Amino acid sequence: MNRLDWIDEEDEMDEMRDIEPRDDRDQMDIIQGFYYKTDEFLERPIVPLYFAPTHLIPFPLPTQQDIDKSTDVICGTGYEQKVVRVSERFAVKYGKYVDPMEGTNMIFVKDNNTGIPVPRVYAIYSEGDITYIVMEYIEGKTLEAEWDTLSKVQRNAILAKLRGYMNRLRAIRCYSKTYFGSLYGAPLPSARHLQPKEVGHMLGPFSNEQDFNNDAILKRLVYDLATANSVGYFGENLGYMEPHETRFTHDAFRRRNIRVRRVPKTRNGQSDEDDFEITIMGWSRAGWYPSYWEYCSAMNYADIEETDWASVLDKIFEPYPEELRVMQMIRSELMGRKGLPL
Against a cut of 0.90, is the pTM above it? Predict the structure, then answer.
């Protein structure tokens, strides 16, 4: 199937033409206060401070005391981080390993006129070694919690909305078709906070796909497994794949990162099946990846979680079967040797 033939709904293409994306260099004039420097130990980008313009903050932001005393835990995400609800209006994600880039990514998507539903970010700041992202609270439950309660019609309606949103995400232009990395020239976010200093270079950024393959994928295998034969075999398979342009990628597209809120509706005066408002969460791993990466990443999560989610992902993403085959072989090698997801 031709890549362009996959998006064949005329109305969906019309919607995508209405997007006026800006590349991430232009965003530097819009998101004030972000810069990146090297932490001597973790080799990670640091966002020192961000506050949304006052006209976008409808209510006083929660104080540090408000956050600390909140017992309404929305989720504990591991790696010494959690998300709490503060009052009726705010959610705060904070912890030692909260990546400020997650907030930056949400601002970037919101400011690119995509119409993709993401929480509005009000503030990003640090206190000691704890990073805080203050955002709007989104009502609802995760799609993971709701999935088994949904009818086929409801599921298909949600999948159609998600397909439209992810098409819009992939329509955002990068200043270079062969740049692979985070926004503003920062390294790729994959396990950024957990990587030891000596492998920080494996996260880029990269100016071409070959360097991405060699460093982000193959050298990771060498570091984790020290299996030269396997690396050579996988390198050959990566070399057989056709070149890919960069696409802005969520890279954690799973049901627990999709929040849905039921909206009752009626037909002819009678109650009908609920509709759903959707919000896409969990942007810490987002960045510029090869075009196949989102599909393979989503299939990877579905496989690890052993759900039927994999069976519907072709309704959201253009499938990349050859690339998926190679990525699954590499992931199997990592999982089999050290239990590590790619």
Answer: no
